[in-house]
Amino acid sequence: MDTGLKKELETVSKLITQTIAEDTFPSGISPECLASAVRAYPIHGGKRIRPALLLWSCGALGGFPDSALYAAAAVEIYHSWTLVHDDIIDEDDLRRGLNTSHVELAVHAKKAYRKDRGTCAKFGRDFAILAGDMQQAWSFAMLLRSAEKGVPPELVLKLVSALALTVNRRLISGEAMDVEFPMRKLETIRPEEVMKMIAGKTSCLLQFAAQCGGAIALNSADFSCEPLAALGAYAENLGIAFQLRDDYLGLFGDVRKFGKPLGSDFQEGKPTPLYLEAMHRLSDAGKKRLLELTGLPEYPQEIIDELRAMMRDCGAEDTLLRRTESFTERAADALSLLPQNRYTGLLSALLDYLLARTV
Amino acid sequence: MDTGLKKELETVSKLITQTIAEDTFPSGISPECLASAVRAYPIHGGKRIRPALLLWSCGALGGFPDSALYAAAAVEIYHSWTLVHDDIIDEDDLRRGLNTSHVELAVHAKKAYRKDRGTCAKFGRDFAILAGDMQQAWSFAMLLRSAEKGVPPELVLKLVSALALTVNRRLISGEAMDVEFPMRKLETIRPEEVMKMIAGKTSCLLQFAAQCGGAIALNSADFSCEPLAALGAYAENLGIAFQLRDDYLGLFGDVRKFGKPLGSDFQEGKPTPLYLEAMHRLSDAGKKRLLELTGLPEYPQEIIDELRAMMRDCGAEDTLLRRTESFTERAADALSLLPQNRYTGLLSALLDYLLARTV
Q: Does the beta carbon of B121 lie under 8 angstroms from any beta carbon of chain A?
């Protein structure tokens, strides 16, 4: 990663961690293990791309990033709650190299209540549902604090409304499509449905982050005006590129850095763009073999290697990489419509990083 | 029920059903079965006590109930999402005599995807998590619409903030305590913890409903001013009385009218006020028998009859009824501090009904 970008992302990360850690929302929660679960993902955090996007988009349009601080913390918390519920649904054990929320709560239950494994696992899931429910409210409460930073009440109302109306519906519809696809016959799933799922699940919160930052700078929630539309197009295409890259790394990445098991999409039978492209390109014998390698209980290195060779040889890997680049270019084109300054420079560096990243 | 009250509750119910049914939030959701799940509880509804409280509290302080219409619909939708997640956690099959959300979604999955029972049950739970997540956002979006009815943006912001900060934390903490109690040793659970749980799980949304209606009437979110404090005390005590009555009916009610199986609290080992009171009063032999009757897989009529006799004979039933009456009286005392008009008359009739109800 570009050292300037890395340093700026670290600055955002510290600022967001501090802002979230100082907020009093979790202090009123009982029991204490639930308060810990509500704090965990937002404070531990990931790359903090969403708050960075929001703060830099505010700066890009001439606003003071500090006025967008609570909004930036809000999108990070919003992202967190969707991950907590997502991890329950996907039955994932690891997130960013640590126990997922429901697993951590089950581990706590085992120590605190000494009940059997099944009871503790159910307790973990139940409390993680409630933790995510609280985090959703926390993200709204955090966004509402923007008024303390001088954002006019009318604009705050419009931003909260966009988060509740547009982001929630598109994002959760995306998550729901992701859950529904494996229930359907593979041949009934159209690539455009998968792209709609990705746009909902990943792009729409990034798009909101960029537009929310821009809206605070302009003191206008007219998302169709030229600069806010350009910020939206930048973030939307960046999000799709990011997700395509993530699908790539889910098979071709380094498990020690990636933070979740390789091949988990294949295990869950998810019709990712890579998977659908391979099914389109493979011979009947190849398709048969890919189906045999779908939904296995485990993905040891030799299976990962076979899947990698298969994706490489049929051209699906190359197609995925080219499509990732194409969405990245569209994002760059949108960015070129904005004023060129320090912040659009950071948005541009972020894009380069996302295209080039290996983990 | 008083025929005047019944008619007024029906009027509120029709108005709320229409307002919720006409709102476009669910129309943007895919897949369609998720949109149906998001609509189901809010449109089918229960007694509509929360929106009635909100509208009548607005009227009681001289406001126009119509200005509080979207706020009233919002608290009903808020109540719905907590029920959807509650039903997953409690593994309940029935709600208001119909399939619960996760069961209905599992039934849909069986028909639509023809997968095995376990897969469809998991799909039902996963989609019900997402349906509740969307309903929480829907309730915020609905409350935000209050601005369309002339409620000033500053007040709307404060009401949304109270819903996100106070109600969410207290209500979900209450739900979490309810989930945690059965994990702990029965003798470690203090009656005051149970009362805190009940206040969070039931009272705090009722309290918000009453104060929100009053705040819209007064154009002030100062919940500590005398009329809003009195409305809050009325609704809080009414909520506790309501919940104590509900615990009573969970054993002594009529299953055909109650809408869920009798004895389910005993099945789940919940330390209800009735249960703790009985454990306090029973002889060692009685306690032993009560523990034998806790956590059974089924509760046929002869077990219900035995539990009823046990609660009656040790005096726990009578204590519960007297405590219910005491909270009802506190609610009536708070109500007497408010102006006497048609709306406070309805609030008073609601209280009488809740004390006297048999179902």
A: no
